[in-house]
Amino acid sequence: MDNPYMPYPVRIDDIEIATEDKSLKTFKFVFLNKEDEEKFSYQAGQFAELSIPGVGEIPIGIASSPVEKGFVKFTVFKTGVVTSHLHNMKVGDIMGIRGPLGNWYPWDKLEGKNVVIIGGGFAFTTLRSSIIYMLDPANRAKFGTIDVVYGARSPGMLLYRDELFEWEQRDDINMHITVDGTDDPDWKYNVGFVPTIVEQNAPKADPDTYAIICGPPIMIKFTQPALEKLGYGEEQIIMSLENRMKCGIGMCGRCNIGKELVCKDGPVFTLKEINLTPKEY
Amino acid sequence: MKVIKIDKNDWTRGIDKSRETYQLFGPVTDKNQSVFKQLGKDAYPEMGRTDTIMSPKSVLFPQTEKILTASLDESVENHHIMQMPETDTTPRAVIGIRPYDAKAVQLVKLNFDTPEYRDTYWCDAYEATTFVGLAVNQPSASDFSTSMGSGPFAEEGLDLLLVDLDDHYLAKVLTPKGETFLDGAGFNGTADTDASLKTIQGMKEAAEAAITSLVPTDKLKEKSLLDLHGAPFWEDTAFSCINCGTCTFVCPTCWCFDIQDETKGKSTSRFRNWDSCMSPLFTMHGSGHNPRGEKTQRVRQRFMHKLKYFLDKYDQGSMCVGCGRCVEKCPVNIDIRSICNTMNSYEPQK
What we know:
The structure holds two protein chains of two kinds.
Chain A: E1 8-17, E2 24-31, H1 34-39, E3 47-52, E4 56-61, E5 72-77, H2 81-87, E6 94-101, H3 107-110, E7 114-120, H4 125-135, E8 146-152, H5 161-169, E9 174-179, E10 190-191, H6 194-201, E11 209-214, H7 217-229, E12 237-240, E13 256-257, E14 260-261, E15 268-270, H8 271-274
Parallel strand pairs in A: 7-8, 7-11, 8-9, 9-10, 11-12
Antiparallel strand pairs in A: 1-2, 1-6, 2-5, 3-4, 3-6, 12-15, 13-14
Helix pairs in contact in A: 6-7
Chain B: E1 2-7, H1 8-18, E2 23-30, E3 33-38, E4 64-71, E5 92-97, H2 99-112, H3 120-128, E6 129-134, E7 160-165, E8 168-173, H4 176-185, E9 189-190, H5 193-210, H6 225-229, H7 234-239, H8 246-250, E10 257-264, E11 267-274, H9 295-314, H10 325-329, H11 336-344
Parallel strand pairs in B: 2-5, 5-6, 6-7
Antiparallel strand pairs in B: 1-8, 1-9, 2-3, 4-11, 7-8, 10-11
Helix pairs in contact in B: 1-4
């Protein structure tokens, strides 16, 4: 069996500034060895360790989608030693990727269902992966209605703006874009926090509707009651958690919530599962 | 079941002979403390000092271990591409490991050797190792191994069990690896198997009876994890803790680790180092948010992991072998035995 700590070598193929404050950048990587791309076969909702020799590793959700071939994409917020270093790297630089890691959104279970995607801030990455996957012509018929509630602090802080506005024009996906506040008089979407917009715009619960939530711990905590108010059951609320991680393979011991390891047993859990664990996230 | 008699006059000769095949690890005195170390050419295991301050967990899981290397020199081929460093997987033998520490290795194995991932470094070291145990004739006052699924003569995880009978050892052969070690050392003195096993059985019963520290664990399985997590006693339990991390450091079943890169000139290495759940940094998010930022949360994590999460996850008992090291070394006398007792008897207020 392969060494699970050994990253696949990749080259930075493209770097895009993702938000107006430049705190987020989207990195496109290509694998140096073609066969590694096949080994890195992933599902929407999984993450990977971005591995910079001499600096360290960071666990980041995969922003590209399984239906996009030839590259992988990650959108990274500049916050610590590794992410700051990464933000200063340039196209052509060589580094590593280890993964794919963790479980994914339950695509089998979601077939034939309506899906409500709820995201906040820069945790929209695996949700972008999911939307691209569901909207793919080969997959769109597998799902019922798709609603997306996505919020950021301000319009310029929304990720993947071009795609958001393109999805906004489509009739097979209902977009509910929101910002905490804006002084742009031409802003034609919502203003308000994600939990409020969820309560106002998300479809009412029915047995065939599932909500997928990914966001900072605080947004997750406040969105939960909003969905419960709409009648969503605890098995219909699917959440992606984050915790500090090192190994990403369930061994180093820090990311647990009770007996569950966020890196290996998660990061995706139903609310029902989370309700059986201490809320240490 | 085969039993070999080893005359103590032949012991050093056998140890020397075994060095031809094995790297030996054993208890030696270092700075007045008894510790497990790799034995140099002239060093012999101090078989009278096997109650070491640290377990031999570092034989398989070094406190600092180089796991990957890379060159950062852009003029060389494969720069910035991680490589495996050379690792030594030649046979090694741990002489004088206590039965509870051998049991601990089996518990740690559940973490490092999983259906999904195999930790190359730990598993390769484990497979290369022969565990030559020494039964505990006189258990210490803090030994509560019989309460934790082990015991002074327990055999789980051992390849050989040595029993000290003053002028000789009886060696109980438990696995083919153990047999190979005896062959390699040239130990082949025959013993009357039935009589020997009877002798060992008698000593085992006496040693078990000498353990007075009995900790009930029978109700831990049926308790609700959330009830225990939310129990009011954690504030009191953690009150005196100074978060020094000694308990995690000396614990034979604590396996948590950190991964760090270190660079010298143009060459870099990725290391893994022991880490501790007692440190706030252990769980701190990049944002500064910390799910276990308070001391009480960290103390609760340690005991819940040992006595409840592990039990619920693997259904293979507690992640404690009752060696008593944390009880002896804790500077503020936090005692896992009384916490286990509290947890085992806890009834939530309805």
